[in-house]
Structure formats: structure tokens, C-alpha cells
Design a protein that fits this description.
Blueprint lengths: L4 E6 L19 H7 L2 H5 L2 E5 L19 H20 L3 E6 L4 H16 L3 E6 L21 H5 L5 H4 L13 E4 L8 H7 L2 E3 L1 H7 L1 H11 L5 E7 L21 H12 L4 E7 L10 H13 L1 H4 L7 E2 L33 E2 L41
Parallel strand pairs: 1-2, 1-3, 3-8, 4-5, 4-7, 5-6, 7-8, 9-10
């Protein structure tokens, strides 16, 4: 028996500010570029289609107006959650191809619905070069959802995005693991104060990608399952400059492959999303090809012979109350499992995963993997395009 991957395109730019006054971001082209490099065939994946986003039009938005495109992002998130939920109901493993990081809102909504259905909580492994934790409590204004997605999915921000369907937060702070942010991330202290578990690049590299994946599993042991968000700007711009906000100090493709493989090598991983690759900065397609190679190798455990279909654990022990620094209200109690329809995925007793490898081994990669040449500096004009 093997798990089947279903690839869903979510080519939205709605969470980014325009690179220039007269242009739009190129991340919407990412799914097509990855498909053109044989991603579906190499994964032997089912084509789950494309969810077309609303028109990108900032209009007369100005700082102080809230998140740009908020009504469109909210509607798109509901539709995306429906599509992801349908894939999981089929017993498949969703791979969502963004688009910008605002696709996380749709994934988060789908996970919260699923957690409610099984009477448990779903966790989030957030692999990203930036914390995306800007919100009204720590910034003078908000504007671009792609720079605020982690804040929004943990309940911080305007209700039309942070509390869709009355669900807030989609992920509790204690159920989030952040991997790959830079050591001096602007909001690193805010993450710490909220009790969100983080492992920045220096610690990730010191421990190794495989051990870091195992560590992430352990942080989410009380969750029924978890979702994986990957923003390719977690990679160093020396090897991946084709993103909207390149930032030195990232990881290598080989490390991302090992990290991804470790995160998905369990039936408790419910799906993966890939965001922020911009083919406009990849004229010869070399970066698209490298991303496809990495994703195919990283998802190999999902489709390996003997891989177990997605499996939700029963609810773990009651989580402790939010830390004092976290001002979010307690979520409403979940309904009893018997009061809702049974999920399409199986519920297994808590215990060791017979398909997991207890010894993930040392990461053979060292900190000397990346070497920047004089021509490899990122274009400063592109930096921070998710910050309106």
C-alpha cells in the first residue's frame, strides 16, 4: 500500500504588494513552471486542478486600510479549504502549489475544520525564511497578508482573515513549530513571548536537518496531525534568488530535501504547501528544475512502498492555557467527536509509528555548503515585497 499525492495549484498573488507601481508579482506563475518540469509525472500524483484566484488589484489601498485584498483573500481561503478537505477525504496527501504565503490561510482553515471533526488539534510546521508575524500588536500598520500569515493563522489580526467561519485561532501558539527563520528575524522575540517554538537557521544547521525534523515531530506530539508550510525563501539566495524577498543566511537545497523527507515520513503529516517561488526571476528555468528535484526527493517517503495513508491520532492531553504573554482568548470547546460525522481518515491509537525510522542519522551537510560569488547578491529592490 502507498500514499497517493494530489497536486492542487493555488496561484494567488493577493498577499503581496506589487514589485513596482505598474507590475504584479510573478508568484502566480510558479505552479505552471513546476508542472512544466515534470513534477506531477515524477511524483505519480493525481492532478487536483487549479483554484483560480480573484483579480489582483490593490486599487487605492493605503497604509492604515488593513490588509490589502482582504475580502478576496478571505473568499479564496474558504474555497481553498474546501478543495484541501476534499483531497484529504479521499485519503490522499495534498501538495498545494502557491502562490504567495497567504495560501496558508486556506490550509489553516481546512486543518481547523478537520481538527474539529476528530475532536483534536492540528499542528503547523512553518518552514520559512521569515517569521511573517507582523500584526497590529507589533507594527504600526499591516498590509500584505504574505508577510502576516503566521500572525493571522494564530489569531492575530482583523477578523475577516483571522477568524473566518468564526474559527480563531486556526492553530494555537503551542501547536506551531517555526523552522528556518534567520537568526535576527524582526519578530523573533515576539515569537518567543507567544510561546511559539522556533529553530532558526544556525540551530537547524547545528543540529542537522534530519534531527530537526524529528525534533519538530516531538514538539507536536499532542496534536492529532500536522500541516507543513514551506516558503522557498528559507533557501539562501546564493542558491535560490527567485523569490520576492531574498534574505542571506538560509539553508541549501540538500538540507531542505532532508528536512522535508523527515517531516513527511509519518502518516501524521497531512499535507504540504509550497510558496513564493517567482519564475520571473528564473529566465532559464534552472531554479524551477532544482525545486522540482528537491520536492520529488523530499516527498519520496510519502509514495514509498509500504507508506501508510494519512492517520489522525486521537486528541492528546488537554493543552495548557496560553502563556501570560499571549493575549488571545481561549478557543471555544470542540464538540464531542460523536456529534460530528466520522472523518474519512482512520483514527489509530497513540503509539510508535511502525513505518518511522527511529534513527534519522546525522545530517552530513555542514555550514560550508553555501559560497557566495560577487555576482550572487540579491537585488535590493526586490527585498521585502511582502511588506506593503
Amino acid at each position: 500500500m502507498m500514499r497517493r499525492i494530489a497536486v492542487l495549484d493555488a496561484p494567488t498573488n493577493l498577499g503581496l504588494r506589487p514589485p513596482t507601481v505598474s507590475s504584479i508579482p510573478g508568484c502566480a506563475k510558479a505552479p505552471g513552471a513546476l508542472r512544466d518540469n515534470g513534477l506531477l509525472a515524477r511524483l505519480r500524483a493525481r492532478d487536483a486542478g487549479c483554484l483560480t484566484p480573484p483579480r489582483y488589484d490593490p486599487g487605492d489601498w493605503r497604509p492604515g486600510d488593513g490588509v490589502c485584498h482582504a475580502p478576496e483573500i478571505s473568499a479564496y481561503s474558504v474555497a481553498l479549504a474546501d478543495r484541501i478537505g476534499a483531497i484529504i477525504d479521499r485519503g490522499e496527501f495534498p501538495l498545494v502549489l502557491g502562490g504567495d504565503c497567504s495560501v496558508l490561510l486556506g490550509s489553516a482553515l481546512a486543518m481547523h475544520r478537520l481538527g474539529e471533526a476528530v475532536g483534536g488539534r492540528i499542528g503547523l510546521v512553518f518552514v520559512d525564511g521569515h517569521s511573517d508575524f507582523r500584526h497590529p500588536g507589533n507594527a504600526s500598520y499591516v498590509g500584505a497578508a504574505a508577510g502576516e500569515d503566521l500572525a493571522l493563522v494564530t489569531g492575530r489580526g482583523q477578523p475577516d482573515l483571522a477568524a473566518i467561519e468564526g474559527r480563531r485561532p486556526y492553530f494555537r501558539d503551542i501547536d506551531v513549530v517555526v523552522l528556518g527563520i534567520r537568526a535576527q528575524d524582526e519578530y523573533r522575540l515576539d515569537l518567543q513571548a507567544a510561546g511559539i517554538t522556533t529553530r532558526p537557521v544556525p540551530a537547524l544547521r547545528a543540529e542537522g536537518a534530519a534531527r530537526t525534523a524529528q525534533w519538530a515531530h516531538e514538539q507536536l506530539v499532542d496534536c492529532a496531525g500536522y500541516w507543513v508550510h514551506i516558503d522557498v525563501d528559507v533557501l539562501d539566495p546564493a542558491v535560490m534568488p527567485a523569490v520576492d524577498a531574498p534574505d542571506p543566511g538560509g539553508i541549501a537545497f540538500a538540507e531542505l530535501e532532508i528536512l522535508l523527507a523527515g517531516l513527511v515520513d509519518t502518516p501524521h503529516c497531512l499535507g504540504v504547501e509550497l510558496t513564493v517561488f517567482d519564475p520571473d526571476y528564473d529566465p532559464d528555468g534552472a531554479y524551477a528544475a532544482e525545486i522540482v528535484n528537491t520536492v520529488v526527493a523530499g516527498l519520496a517517503p510519502v509514495v514509498a512502498p509500504g507508506a501508510v495513508p494519512p492517520r489522525l491520532l486521537p486528541a492528546g492531553p488537554v493543552a495548557p492555557a496560553p502563556r501570560a504573554a499571549d493575549s488571545l482568548p481561549e478557543p471555544e470547546p470542540l464538540p464531542a467527536p460523536a456529534a460530528v460525522p466520522a472523518p474519512a481518515v482512520a483514527v489509530e491509537p497513540i503509539g510508535p509509528d511502525p513505518t518511522a525510522d527511529d534513527d534519522l542519522g546525522d545530517d552530513p551537510l555542514g555550514p560550508g555548503l553555501l559560497r557566495r560569488s560577487a555576482g550572487d547578491e540579491p537585488d535590493p529592490a526586490r527585498s521585502g515585497s511582502d511588506i506593503a
